Amino acid sequence: MAAVTQTQKFSKQFLWGFATAAFQIEGSTNTDGRGPSIWDAFSREPGRTLDGRDGDVATDSYRLWKEDVKLLKEYGVRAYRFSLSWSRLIPLGGRDDPVNEQGIAFYNSFIDALLEAGITPFVTLYHWDLPQALHDRYNGWLNKDESVKDYTRYAQLCFSRFGDRVKHWLTINEPWCVAILGYGRGVFAPGRSSDRNRNAEGDSSREPWIVAHHVILAHAHAVKAYREEFKATQGGEIGITLNGDWAMPYDESPDNVAAAQHALDFAIGWYADPVYLGFYPPYMKEVLGDRLPEYSAEEWAIVKGSSDFYGMNTYTTNLIKAGGKDEFQGNTQYTFTRPDGTQLGTHAHSPWLQSYPDGFRALLNYLYKKYQKPIYVTENGFSVKDESFKSVSEAIKDTDRVDYFKGVTNALKAAVFEDGVDVRSYFGWSLLDNFEWADGYETRFGVTYVDYETQKRYPKDSARYLTKVGF
Ligand code: PNW
């Protein structure tokens, strides 16, 4: 990797900042008319989160949002990525259900404050918090016609109320997590799987593929509505954002080289191939047969080309070996241990995460070449091991996170300035320590430490580091 010289600068339009999601930070789940989401009930069930804690307070950002804006200003970000809570805007979620004007007013104030501070809002419509009423009414994403219509109506409401000021829209965050973790492994809301020790209902062999099929279609219909009804007057852009980590063959054996591509097909191609190329990965059809649903010709016409850009969330790289029976990994095996016994990178608190900056560069190149779209990096970050067990003054010296960001931002520069990849944003995950889903509050991803007793925020070294990268 040749050194990147100081004179190479990101363009003035490059959007750098931090990301969050409504359920992970807002709290106030029962305030000002908000309706419940599937994560409200799920996180309250005993045993669903590691520390037994739920999202009812989180970082209290519904009440403390002005402090969050102050932090963003202090960090000098150009953009902020956050998500809207569907059930705050339409408490029962459905297309004929009433709109909650108090929810609209909250996000209006928030968006206005960002713009006044010169910060570009980058808005996610759906970050996993499905209105509970839709799950109860018709099984949520398992019901194609209803979920597609209700989601599209919700998206239209957001475009019409916020689209005069919001020019960057993300339809769905990480549909892989929705389908696999929610309906395959049953560890995320709504907690469905075939494992009856874990979940009362579900079918891991079928539901994830069905749910994903419907989520993609809902995304595509929302994009169609934006393009037909709003784009001409509002002039924004819209797309989906996918999680996906780089997959490297464990060694040079042909089976493991093929397996690395199979892993990418199941993690990324599952969504990206339909949306950008207009078909499901052939390897998925081979493995799943008729359990992988098909779209009609009319549906394909809506799905194909339904994203203006590639939204990329990425955290790590895995070494891939052929074999194993984990269908969700495309019958491949993931490891961080190289053949010589060494580890790929530095361990995070999250067991699925190690640092490996070269993988970030390789992934950018792979996606740009394969899907040929400008790339927005919408999430990337690191949970420092045992950070919750440290004192505040220790925790804010988050050297492993600084090293992680150093590696990744250098890899980003190399991809942009040496490889010619068109990257238009970089959002660190996350602005704040927050509700890390099934991990509760123990795993911390923030560049700002949150003391959950006092809700005081303490900038970590990593926040200062990214501020100085000079995007
Ligand atoms: C993403 N995995 O989730 C989400 O978009 C965030 O809300 C979340 O806080 C962040 O990454 C950190 O976890 C993921 O198991 C959750 O591989 C789990 C996985 C990946 C991403």
From TrEMBL:
Q: Which keywords does this chain's UniProt record carry?
A: Carbohydrate metabolism, Cellulose degradation, Glycosidase, Hydrolase, Polysaccharide degradation
Active site positions: E379
- Any one GO molecular function term: cellobiose glucosidase activity
Catalyses which reaction?
Hydrolysis of terminal, non-reducing beta-D-glucosyl residues with release of beta-D-glucose
Q: What's an example Gene Ontology biological process for this entry?
A: cellulose catabolic process
Q: Could you tell me which InterPro entries the record lists for this protein? A: GH, GH_1_N_CS, Glyco_hydro_1, Glyco_hydro_1_AS
Q: What is its EC number?
A: 3.2.1.21
Transmembrane: is it a keyword of this entry?
Answer: no
Main EC class of this protein?
hydrolase
**Which Gene3D superfamilies does the UniProt entry name for this protein?**
Glycosidases
The record's function comment reads: Plays an important role in cellulose degradation. Shows hydrolytic activity against several glycosidic compounds.
Which family does the entry's similarity section mention? Belongs to the glycosyl hydrolase 1 family.
Q: Which PANTHER family match?
A: GLYCOSYL HYDROLASE (PTHR10353), LP05116P (PTHR10353:SF36)
Protein name in the entry: beta-glucosidase
Q: Which organism is it from?
A: Sphaerobolus stellatus (strain SS14)
